[in-house]
Task: structure prediction
Amino acid sequence: MHPSNLVLTSHQRLDELLTTGYNLALMDKLGLEVGPGRGELIGYKIDPERKMGVVARVPPTSITGESKSLPEWSKIIEDEFHGLEGTNFDDLEDPTSIVPKYIACMNAFEPTIIDRLLSVLSPNPPGITDPPSLWNDTPLEPDGPREINPKEILYITGEPRPLGSDQAKSSGMPTIFIGHNRSEVWAIHWLAGKARERLGSGIEVIVVDEEDVVLPRPPKLESRGKQGEAGQGKTRKRKSSGDQESSSRQDKKEDEETVVRGTVVEDVTSETTRAV
Result:
């Protein structure tokens, strides 16, 4: 990293607001109407302000007046993220006939969060009778339906979890797993798009994956045995000048291996700004 580079980081907020969770940008891209104060799950563990998710009602299509089926929504979401970690559709009875009425984007997949989601959708939730004071959930429709069928909720989250998977299977709730890394890449590209809107087309965004970075090898340490031998008067053979030059070239080569594979960074001109 060059000393003149500016680095801004906020992993918790990125995870909270732009991956699977309280992702209003994603819900908007899916054509779902959401807004502050409606269908929110806020509060987790000891943090009463942490946003855990949001849910929206699925509108009917403008042409036929009918809502999209579960396979159609799955294809839309898969295209948006360029792939999926998986689904639980094999656990459902006749998933092709399911037509979701609600889509929830959640930052966790556990029974308590699922029960809270049902509470947000219904004034009489089946699993929660006395919500903790740390929760600040807001109902989607205060005068909404009294009973919610989990089969009508499409649950979007990051990774499968055993307890959440068991509850989703027993209730028949369809679930799509985006994958944590894939959702973070989506977030980075969304931020890049916003940066281009504000700064113009001269900005280039390079997404660097940690797995693509080759780190330099740490220096080798002599064993105590070798150090002891040196202390007993044994001398090590001194390298010749040719060997020293060869070793220097090898060290330089290893240093140059600290690069990002598949990325070529050219000289930055005054007309182009690069964001890494």
